[in-house]
Design goal:
The chain starts with a helix and ends with a helix. Helix 1 runs antiparallel to helix 7, helix 2 packs across helix 13 and helix 3 runs parallel beside helix 6. The longest helix has 30 residues. It is built from 16 helices and two strands. With about 350 residues, the protein is mainly α. A two-stranded antiparallel ribbon has the order 1-2. The protein has a single domain, classed as ABC transporter involved in vitamin B12 uptake, BtuC (Orthogonal Bundle).
């Protein structure tokens, strides 16, 4: 039985809107789920749709956190004095200053990261395969080290943002909807983008970049724009995370290459690369897996995560979506004609 997409999307929107109120004790986990969904979808834009597997997308997340923080603080105070460990003093933010800083900081983070992707892409997209992955990872690691030694933004001690002006539970709902709206907008945008000529060009680069260039596709232009679009949304997610975490430092919170930098890749591999819904489903499954192992198998959670990666890579190389497409093609609108015994015998002869 065919499922009406409009009805499905309406139900999903209702669930998204009701989730923080139905599960008020899981506000942080629900917000984190949306973070995983966003970073997974953004990673798949280049890794799945275009075939350029990046290990440095965490650069845009961490940079987004710092850009949002600098903008929010700089609107009211001198950033250097605010972050100084020896400055002392009391720094208060009005409600209007907090929300203005939040909006401008998050938008500014996205724009700054998009511009950064253009600049960095001119160098990194000269590399391919594992060299591209290693090159982007190097950018993320270098950025974390540079920021940790930059006293103007707090250096290794990090930076602290103002607390949400109001009830703590209301603040969790606010952050949840900031992530959720970003995720929904990203989904709508990608659902449109992948159906356009631009999406077809991305897939052509993934399938055979040399042939795509021979056909007249300006591959560098498409690669730069794709990465910039991806960087914009992950930068926005990083900006929102800065206000969620409130106090963060560069290596463990912002440029966390070992944690979130790996998690976003695992989410895509788990759900299925190069698909619209794969990263979303993978992020949901990974968040559930992470919460269970982190709560009930403390000390073994990294072992469990490693086992999950191995099982996924060995037995489900196309992810859950690829597996389902093979065993249940009718769910994806594909029809498989069954040959009769006479036809099969004739074909055998």
């Amino acid at each position: 039985m065919a499922i009406n997409k409009n009805a499905l999307y309406t139900i999903l929107l209702i669930v998204i809107a009701a989730a923080p109120f139905v599960f008020p004790n899981y506000g942080v986990q629900l917000a984190t789920l949306w973070l995983f969904i966003i970073v997974a979808m953004t990673w798949d834009m280049t890794g799945g749709q275009m075939g350029y597997n990046s290990l440095g997308n965490i650069f845009f997340y961490g940079t987004g956190m710092y850009v949002a923080a600098v903008i929010a603080i700089g609107l009211v105070y001198d950033v250097g004095e605010y972050t100084s460990a020896f400055g002392g003093g009391r720094y208060d933010f009005t409600d209007a200053q907090y929300f203005t800083g939040f909006v401008l900081g998050v938008i500014g983070a996205g724009i700054f990261c998009a511009i950064s992707a253009f600049i960095i892409g001119y160098v990194t997209f000269g590399l391919r395969g594992p060299y591209f992955a290693i090159g982007t990872l190097g950018v993320a690691i270098a950025a974390g080290e540079l920021v940790s030694n930059w006293d103007w933004v707090g250096g290794g001690q990090g930076i602290t943002l103002p607390v949400y002006p109001g009830n703590l539970d209301d603040g969790k709902v606010f952050i949840y909807f900031a992530f959720a709206i970003t995720g929904v907008v990203l989904f709508i945008f990608l659902n449109y983008l992948y159906k356009t000529r631009f999406g077809a060009a991305m897939n052509a680069i993934r399938d055979d970049e040399e042939k795509a260039e021979a056909m007249g596709i300006h591959t560098m232009r498409y690669k730069l724009i794709s990465w910039a679009l991806s960087a914009f949304f992950i930068g926005v997610a990083g900006g929102i995370s800065a206000f969620q975490i409130i106090s963060f430092e560069p290596l463990e919170s912002a440029y966390q290459t070992i944690n979130l930098g790996i998690f976003m890749v695992v989410c895509v591999l788990l759900g299925g690369k190069g698909t619209l819904w794969g990263p979303i489903i993978g992020a949901i499954l990974f968040q559930l897996f992470k919460e269970v192992t982190w709560n009930y198998f403390l000390g073994w959670q990294w072992v469990a995560l490693g086992a999950l990666i191995i099982v996924t890579v060995v037995y489900f190389q196309d992810g859950l979506m690829g597996y389902l497409r093979t065993v249940r093609p009718e769910w994806f609108g594909q029809t498989v004609e069954e040959k009769s015994d006479d036809a099969a015998g004739e074909a055998a002869r």
